[in-house]
Each structure stands twice: as structure tokens, then as C-alpha cells.
Design a protein that fits this description.
This protein is an alpha/beta fold. It is 52% helix and 12% strand. The chain has helices at residues 25-36, 46-53, 57-69, 83-90, 94-119, 152-162, 167-176, 180-186, 197-210, 212-215, and strands at 13-19, 41-45, 125-129, 144-149, 189-192. Helix 1 (25-36) crosses helix 9 (197-210), helix 2 (46-53) packs across helix 5 and helix 6 (152-162) packs across helix 7 (167-176).
């Protein structure tokens, strides 16, 4: 009997990208994929998944029921979600936020794992942007944690100038998140995005060069 050969695919590496609001998580992913190519690196964005969920009638109905039980109004005139009002309440009422997250987060995790499975065998590495990776103990098995960080002053400036938020809401959002010092302590790698775009991209390019062995296997 001849020898039998088994094909053993090289495993896809999972990298969790986290950090504070307005720190540049998506900017990191975009630059890394530009260098590596979308045929080698995939990106999964939890914020995009949440936005998609907010468009699904069944999810909207669940959230409206949670809001009604909490005596909070988050519906718009078309029967959908008033996202601005929802965002304000999420960062103004911790008990309400916990109730909403109990509905949304399990669905997000399911979508993430579905996308991970779809990418498996297609790319060598997946970057998974999880803003609340540590805050909610997101149950993702991964190879590495990378945090993108900036000073609180720079985060606030970006929220005010780039995203047009009111200062009160911006400060509530920042105060609701885990301090970046703690995220940096927990992560394997930190990228500091407080200066120029060129400095930020230079750090990403350096990390890309360090990953060449993995990506070219």
C-alpha cells in the first residue's frame, strides 16, 4: 500500500484590535491590509456588526422592548431606533447599558465567529476590531491582543472636531470606557496614535514587517 499524505492547512492567526474611542483602530486595520493585501489579511469590525444589527427588525423589536421595560424611549417615528438617543442613554445610564448589551453582545459574538469561520482557509490573518474587548470579557480565542491608544485630550478633540459630538456626551463616552493605561497593560502590543499620521503609519509598517514570516508561510 502506498503512503498516504494528509493536507494540513496552516492555521489562520487571530489578532484582536482594541483601544479607546477615536484612537484609530480602523485606521490601523486599513493600513495593515494595504501593506499585506486583502488576500492575506481579513478584517472583522464589531462596530459595523452592531450597526447592521440595529437595522434588523427582530433586533430592533428586542431593543425597544428592553427600553420600554426600562422606561426609556429609543424609537423613531418610523418604528426604528433613534440611534442618537440610544447612544446618549447608553453612556448616561449604566443599568440600561447592561440590559442593552445583554441583547446585543451575544449576537455580535455569533456574527464574529461566523465571519471568522468564513475567512478560515482564505487568509493567513484576521484582524478583529473589538472596542470593548476587556470591558465585556469578549470570549474570543485569539493569538494576540493589540491596543491602539491616544491621550484622553486627543480622543476628546477627535470626538468634538471630527465626529461633531457635544462635549458632555464625549466626556461620558470616555469615562464609560476602561482607562487606556489598563488596556495597554493587558495587551501584547501597543500602538501610540497621538501624533502625525506618518508616525502612526510608521509603527504599523514596522509591525507588518515583523509579521512577514507569518503572512508568507
Amino acid at each position: 500500500m502506498g503512503r498516504v499524505f494528509y493536507f494540513c492547512p496552516v492555521p489562520m492567526r487571530l489578532i484582536a484590535i482594541t483601544g479607546g474611542v477615536a484612537c484609530g483602530k480602523s485606521g490601523f486595520s486599513r493600513r495593515f491590509v494595504e501593506r499585506a493585501g486583502s488576500n492575506r489579511v481579513g478584517v472583522i469590525n464589531c462596530d459595523e456588526i452592531v450597526r447592521d444589527l440595529y437595522e434588523e427588525p427582530q433586533v430592533v423589536e428586542e431593543l425597544l422592548m428592553v427600553a420600554q421595560a426600562s422606561h426609556c424611549g429609543i424609537g423613531d417615528s418610523q418604528g426604528g431606533l433613534d440611534r442618537r438617543r440610544l447612544r446618549e442613554l447608553l453612556f448616561d445610564n449604566s443599568q440600561f447599558r447592561v440590559r442593552i448589551e445583554s441583547v446585543v453582545h451575544p449576537k455580535v459574538f455569533q456574527r464574529v465567529m461566523a465571519q471568522v469561520n468564513a475567512l478560515s482557509g482564505q487568509v493567513r490573518m484576521s484582524l478583529i476590531e473589538v472596542p470593548l474587548l476587556y470591558e465585556v470579557n469578549f470570549p474570543l480565542k485569539r493569538d494576540l491582543d493589540l491596543v491602539v491608544a491616544a491621550s484622553k485630550e486627543e480622543q476628546c478633540r477627535r470626538l468634538l472636531e471630527d465626529r461633531g459630538l457635544e462635549r458632555t456626551l464625549a466626556e461620558r463616552i470616555l469615562n464609560a470606557q476602561m482607562p487606556l493605561d489598563e488596556k495597554i497593560r493587558r495587551a501584547d502590543i501597543a500602538v501610540w496614535n497621538n501624533g502625525s499620521l506618518q508616525a502612526f503609519e510608521a509603527q504599523i509598517d514596522h509591525l507588518y514587517d515583523r509579521c512577514q514570516t507569518i503572512l508568507l508561510e
